[in-house]
Amino acid sequence: MSTQYSVAGSVAIIRLDNPPVNGLGQSVRAGIVRDLSRALDTPDVEAIVLAGTDGVFSAGADIREFGTSNAGAEPSLHAVIEALEDSPKPVVAAIEGTCFGGGLELALATHHRVATAASRVGLPEVKLGLVPGAGGTQRLPRVLDVRTAAEMITGGAPRTARALAADPRQRLFDRVVEADAVAAAIEFAREVAGRGVRTRVRDLAVDPGGATVLGALRAQLTARSRGFAAPLLALDLVEKAIAALFDVGLAAEGAAFRELVGGVQSAALRHAFFAERAARRVPGLAPDTPIRDVRQVAVVGAGTMGVGIAMTFVDAGIPVTVLETSQEALDRGLATIRRNYQSQVDKGKLAAIVLEQRMALLTPSVDYAALADVDLVIEAVFEDMEVKRAVFTRLDAVTKPGAILATNTSTLDVDQIAALTGRPGDVLGMHFFSPANVMALLEIVRAGRTSDDVLATALAVAQRIGKTAVVSGVCDGFIGNRMLARYRRAAQLMLEAGATPERIDSAIEGFGYAMGPFRMADLAGGDIGWAVRKRRYAEDPDMPRDVLSDTLCEMGRFGQKTGAGWYDYEPGRRAAIPSPVVAEMLADFRRQWDIRSVEISDEEIVQRLVFALVDEGARILDEGIALRASDIDVVYLAGYGFPRHRGGPMFHADTVGLDRVEDAVRRFDVDGRGPAPLLARLAAEGGTFR
Ligand code: 3H9
To answer: Which ranges carry the 3-hydroxyacyl-CoA dehydrogenase C-terminal domain (predicted)?
Structure first.
């Protein structure tokens, strides 16, 4: 059973019952139609309530059905919607919890809607590379002001019923209640049944003046689209809702939905959705693995990373002890946190009272004894094994048994760090990305002896603090930075061969990246990478030199912060201006090494960069550092700005065809290693990474 039917006096109640989110799969659709006709055939029933179960209305169409024969199986969502809308007895939707996508479209087909104030309604289809396909683009602008409807349809972000109901013009909700929308809907149904009221959304007029607000939105979406189709198509449909008859708009919506659902962008975004959820599951980790209680956290080090990590926990309401070596460093760290929150207050994103509540969750200390009772420590000190040794030895001595000791290292060996303690089972890596309170990605580094419950706890903590977690094994750079090194090297080699920073950046931005490698390097600042390189050159004299980056740094060009890097910058501005100094430096380099500049096409630039990621990803997968190819995609989507509508590097490689990828990697072979063995094997077999 995917619906439940009951009758309370003159009101029939149809409940969607398809846990966990009441996806509108075929059996739910059939259940609604069956229950509706039962209600219509029962003379004593005068009105019908359509509700969810366990506080959830519906998260929309069952995404797993897309691309399967069930997606088109009768009754279609359109048929269900028509049946509800044409019901001669009034239908009232009782909205609680999530009401997304097809779920909202279902609610818009009923004659009245009662919602709890906290329920969240939205049309997130664009996030799956789609447009709403069951009337959402035509009905929502009829019940909300056009700007709000258009923002929801083209952006996909949900709103609470409370926020939407604050606008007196809205006709989405007939009643908004604090709790129990089902009871309120039954009461409402009794009232309207007596009066025979029955309002069809499709018959309402759209504000004809609404079109005037859409120009600015179109300009914004165009600037941001970078080849991603759905938002602009969704906006076309909102314009149709204003300018065309309902049925004409509905037909256009159906055509756009069908086109998109079969396309590669939607396939990529659906892949990303399921990949993020799959990443939470670790093969071999029993679902009933105990989770340790994490109530009190400590962060060691109040530099940039430590500050961001502390804010991440405080934002989630978890108290944090911040440890530093000197009062001065501690004061500086705490002042940075306050300043960061204050800037959110100034922008109206945070209430002043919340700022104080968050600051109150922080306990600054210069004494390791303050960590005696914490459940989880995250070390974010200088990247040097001797410094880590000092910290972990102290942590091992002062923290209670069972406390988890995590390192935020991005370059050092977590096995070696674990071995510094007498409890290696309690040690793992939690690699945050800067700024840690903003970036979604968290690499959880499972060391050789990390115990299962410590890993399971870190995954649970990641969910609590709203991070997208991916488990990585131990290797230099883990998943993300190890691949990034190949990407950067590919960029550098193209510079040497004749390309310019602006040409490389613009090619990869055309592929969908928000920023190419050189604009990104200028934003991040070149000095830190230079310091790391110098240390590594000293450790390994045979290591290939990044001559161009080193020369740039020797010239004091560290990027935006020094007003010059790979590009020039006007004082106080962020716009990257191609630099004659850099052009001269490149020309000098090529003269010195007798390199005849070659022209590299945009297509080849993209291939060299992206396939370098894919090739390293294949090695990482083969070595078991990543558990699955989709985890690598999640790392790149959540942490490295890979265009989401391309699904991640490994998914993208699958869509290109691994034989073509392998062939290109072979042609570009720069280090004489040839393609990764796994890539070569899959290409020969006609296989994919999935
Ligand atoms: C649509 O409606 C098209 C129509 O316009 C037209 C059609 C003709 N289907 O995220 P969670 C699974 S397009 C199937 O971990 P949360 C999810 O995979 C649809 N499965 O929980 C996970 O499974 P597992 C538009 C779905 O509490 C489990 O449910 N709707 C769907 O953090 C729990 O999910 C959307 O795009 C689904 N629709 O968040 C909504 N939704 O346990 C997408 C979830 O096996 N969904 N699952 O890993 C969401 O935004 C979040 O999942 C939601 C819950 C907020 C609902």
So the answer is: 477-569, 605-683
- Whether 49 and 12 have beta carbons less than 8 Å apart is answered as yes
Ligand 1 within 6 A of CB of 125? yes
Ligand 1 close to Cβ of residue 77 (< 6 A): yes
Q: Please choose, from the candidates 414, 433, 389, the residue with its C-alpha nearest in 3D space to the C-alpha of residue 475.
A: 414
pTM higher than 0.90: yes
Active site residue 105: yes
Of all protein residues, the one whose alpha carbon is nearest to atom 6 of ligand 1 is 133
For residue range 374-399, list pLDDT tens digits in order.
999 999 998 889 999 999 999 999 99
- Predicted interface score ipTM higher than 0.95: yes
Give the ligand 1 atom nearest the CA of 120: 55
Q: Which of 670, 493, 498 is nearest to 591 (CA)?
A: 498
| Distance of alpha carbon 589 from alpha carbon 690, whole angstroms | 42
Contacts of 314 (CB under 8 A, 6+ apart): 320, 337, 358, 361, 362
Count of alpha carbons within 13 angstroms of residue 159, beta-carbon side: 18
Q: Which residues of 556-591 are buried (b: 16+ CB within 10 A; e: fewer)?
A: ebbbbebebbbbbbeeeeeebeebeebeebbeeebe
**CA–CA separation, 521 and 567 (whole Å):** 10
Per-residue pLDDT band at 545 (split at 50, 70, 90) = confident
Which domains are delineated in the chain?
A: 3-261 (3.90.226.10), 297-472 (3.40.50.720), 480-685 (1.10.1040.50)
